[in-house]
Amino acid sequence: MIGFVLTIFALMVAHSSPAAQRQPTPRMIDLTTAVVIAAPRPNTADAKAVQMLVEEVEKRTRIRWPVLSPAQTSSRPRVAIVTNSPVGGEWLAESFSIQTEHQTGPQQITIRAQDSRGVLFGVGRLLRNLRMERDRVSIPADLIITSSPYHSLRGHQLGYRPKTNSYDGWTVPMWEQYIRDLIVFGANAVELIPPRSDDDADSPHFPLPPMKMMMEMSKLLDQYGMDVWIWYPAMDKDYGNPETVDRAVKEWAYVFRKLPRVDAVFVPGGDPGHTEPKHLMALLEKQTASLHKYHPKAQMWVSPQGFTQAWMDEFIGILKTKQPKWLTGVVFGPQVRAPLPKLRALVPKQYPIRHYPDITHSIQCQFPVPDWDPAFALTEGRESINPRPTQESLICKYHQPYTIGSITYSEGCNDDVNKAVWSALEWDPKADVKEILREYSRYFISPRFEEAFSEGLLHLEQNWVGPLAQNTQVPRTLKEFQLLEARANPREKLNWRFQQALYRAYYDSYLQLRMIRESNIARRALDTLAQAPQIGWDRASAETALVLNELDDRRAGAGLRQRVFELAEALFQSIHMQLSVKKYKAIAVDRGANLDSIDDPITDRAWIAQESKRIAALPDEADRIKAIDEIVHWTDPGPGGFYDEPGNPQRREHLAPGPGFAKDPGFMSSVRVGFEGEGGRLRWGRYAETLYDTPLQMRYSGLDPKAAYKMRVVYGPDKPEVKIRCISGNGIEVHPYLTKPIPQKPLEFDIPPAAYAGGALELVWNRQPGFGGNGRGCQVSEIWIVKR
User: Fold this and answer.
1) Is the predicted pLDDT of residue 565 greater than 90, yes or no?
2) Phi/psi of residue 136, nearest 5 degrees
3) Helix (H, G, I), strand (E, B), or coil: what is residue 131?
4) How far is residue 242's CA from residue 250's CA, in Å, rounded to a whole number?
5) pLDDT tens-place string over residues 302-344
6) pLDDT beyond 60 at 758
7) Cα–Cα distance for residue pair 478/465, rounded to 1 Å
């Protein structure tokens, strides 16, 4: 894992070098006075594509290109759109070519496509290559592109529901704009969410009722020729009851009937929903028949999310023995216990697999940020603004060979960069991520900033690599964005994508200043407490309190913090992003409202103050001195002992990490870092964990076979209902399955001498096998091997 992180760091540094920033300046054709040549096709997707081209150019330049028919003539430069034209000698769906044609007379850029979708994506690629500035449009003179998609499915889930941190405030025009933005980077599908899901029924931000907005979005997507999917959870308790099934069929039929277009329905097996496969599949067979009454060609898909091993076996058995013809395919998403390569081998070949990757979350998710610093986890949290271009590229390419494509899981516009990366790579896995970011920056921000802003996005990802306090990239990233901020014109400063990047850069830097200062205070407080045996408890306690109660010196960070709050207000105004529960009526702090957690504890400063009060209440000086000694020497395992903090990449030398993120991005066979809990000792809220039945292993050497040892361990607090067991590598039990104590506390167990008879010890933890859900529960925060 560390090797992969260092590799990513080196690549990013290389990207940021002056040589990497110098791009050759191509010869350009001026299209400022161009006209668009297109056959009149009213009320078709072709017409929508032409409208999108003209309007998106006008929004960025104030220039509106006239649209002429092929029969009309003009001496001005031309952008010609030719439909029903074979691309590359073949008639491939969605394919297109773009070519600058050098000829006598006016310059011409020609988009050729076989079908309406080819026109749509050809227009999108043209927009990505145009240089659009105020009152000027140009394009490289030697542009030649011929392109066909690698995957047939490239989409994103856009859920109009209260749980999202922005979508619930969007109007129909805002949705249309965002749909266009996704098209430009190659998306051909959008997944909607019905009015009843695992969400509140209403939001204070809703401009329209959920069913009305769902109808409007389906209509919009149909106009652009986009596929309309529905993520439809089966949330009722008992689908073995015929009355429940009948009610569900009627409820879903109402939604199907109301929508002008539905191409596919995806029903997750869990999260939410929890139905045994035999009942779930019987329900979906009836739902498919109902669906076909209104949308005869619509598909039905299902995922085995949250299944126990027994349910997974049952599900695969149904596919193999009954081979339901009504089922189109299987979805691999969060909480599927089988890794995708294994799932593909299990599922009969006639059923394609669609990916449902979580691109929106940073912790407690399908693809967490590798070895994230706890300061970020405790403040920026699970749904922060999270451009992860290099990591998302690796995740995407790892899974591509096994699927027909993806519709990503999104909870808002915080993952906008990741959407562009996924769309572009599902179209072309060989696309250069840096070039995707350049196009993103050129199209959405400004041609002036295409290099600097794209580098900045890479550097925001780099901000999250390694320990925050030592990360020298964080202040550099802020400086880069402050320079862009100083150069930005009013239009650019009002751009929500620009505001998001600034928000992250300022937040990261403020957090780093806090981390450095408060870590220093915590260290000084512990050093002061440690003097109690020499200077006495009363004096040590008083001086420790003075250190802990130092007023936060925010003179260095006050401006950064204030700017974060200003940008939060700007994002609420521009894109209805809800970064605070109190100020902007977000549904919860952990749903992207990280403005509310910006000052939450990120060191043990608060815990030390709490412990000081506990120690002060002890009956005599000797007890207090003993308690202080325990705190000060907490990590000391004694002579011949070992100590690890498995969730801390700097203190886990005995951990067996597994393949790591680069080879196992979902951490299905690897150890990952998890976070849970508020308050208390921070190291107890960070832990190493494995998923499902993957064991967590620690390996030690140099033990004395003739000595006695005990294990002291603190287990992670997440999923306390899931029992955990520890055995040695040679199968000797150290402790049986037990319930993890809440609140957390150290547990001690004698280690059987036979477990280390040869001087080496391997400890293996696992949670109860076969359980379903999210797979979590096998978690170790701290461990000591103590020689007695």
Assistant:
1) yes
2) -155, 140
3) strand
4) 12
5) 999 999 999 999 999 999 999 999 999 999 999 999 999 999 9
6) yes
7) 15
In tens, the pLDDT along 361-372 reads 999 999 999 999
Sheet holding 136-140, edge to edge: 28-30, 136-140, 131-133
Q: Decide if 137 contacts 130 (C-beta within 8 A).
A: yes
Q: What would the pLDDT profile of 146-184 be if each residue is shown by its tens digit?
A: 999 999 999 999 999 999 989 999 999 999 999 999 999
- Measure the CA–CA gap between 578 and 571, rounded to whole angstroms: 8
Q: Rounded to whole angstroms, how far apart are CA atoms 301 and 273? A: 15
The tokens for 465 are 């690599």
Q: How far apart are CA 233 and CA 129, in angstroms?
A: 40
Measured between alpha carbons, how far is 592 from 172 in angstroms, rounded to an integer?
23
Q: What is the average pLDDT across 120-143?
A: 97
The SS3 call for residue 117 is helix
Task: Compute φ and ψ for 116, nearest 5 degrees.
Answer: -65, -40
Residue 514 sits at φ, ψ, to 5 deg, of -60, -45
Query: Could you tell me the two tokens for 74?
Result: 């003009």
Q: What amino acid is encoded at 385 in this protein? A: I
100: phi then psi, degrees, rounded to nearest 5: -85, 120
Helix (H, G, I), strand (E, B) or coil at 583: helix
Q: Which two tokens stand for residue 334?
A: 């969060």
**What is the DSSP code string of 418-438?**
HHHHHHHHHH-TTS-HHHHHH
| Cα 217 to Cα 189: distance, rounded to the nearest angstrom | 12
- Retrieve residue 51's tokens: 């409208």
Distance of alpha carbon 391 from alpha carbon 177, whole angstroms: 27
Whether 10 has a pLDDT exceeding 90, the answer reads no
User: Is residue 293 packed enough to be buried (19+ CB in 10 Å), middle (13-18) or exposed (0-12)?
Assistant: exposed
CA distances from 134 to 28, 62, 66, 438, 445 (A): 16, 7, 18, 19, 12
Rg (C-alpha) for the chain, rounded Å, is: 29
HSE-CB for 243 with a 13 A CA cutoff: 0
Q: Looking at per-residue confidence, does 104 or 185 come out higher? A: 185
- Smallest CA-to-CA distance from 773 within 664, 669, 692 is with 692
Q: Would you say 382 and 131 are in contact if contact means Cβ atoms under 8 Å apart?
A: no
Separation CA 216–CA 174 (nearest Å): 12
Q: Are 709 and 756 within 8 A, CB to CB?
A: yes
Contact between residue 456 and residue 501 where contact means Cβ atoms under 8 Å apart = yes
Dihedrals phi, psi of 777, to nearest 5 degrees: 140, -25
Q: Are 239 and 279 a contacting pair, CB within 8 Å?
A: yes
| Element at 181 (helix H, strand E) | helix 172-184
Given a contact cutoff of 8 angstroms between Cβ atoms, the answer to whether 459 and 477 are in contact is: yes
Per residue in 190-234, pLDDT tens?
999 999 998 999 999 999 999 999 999 999 999 999 999 999 999
Place of tokens 């990047």: 501
pTM of the model: 0.94
At 652, list the tokens: 């886990």
Q: Which residue has the higher pLDDT, 681 or 778?
A: 778
Q: What is the DSSP string of 633-696?
A: TTT---TT-EEE-TT-TTS-TTEE--S-TTT-TT-SSS-EEEE--SSS-GGGGEEEEE-TT--E
Residue 352 neighbours by CB distance under 10 Å: 19
Measured CA to CA, the distance from residue 128 to residue 424 in angstroms comes to 11
Q: Which amino acid is at 166?
A: S
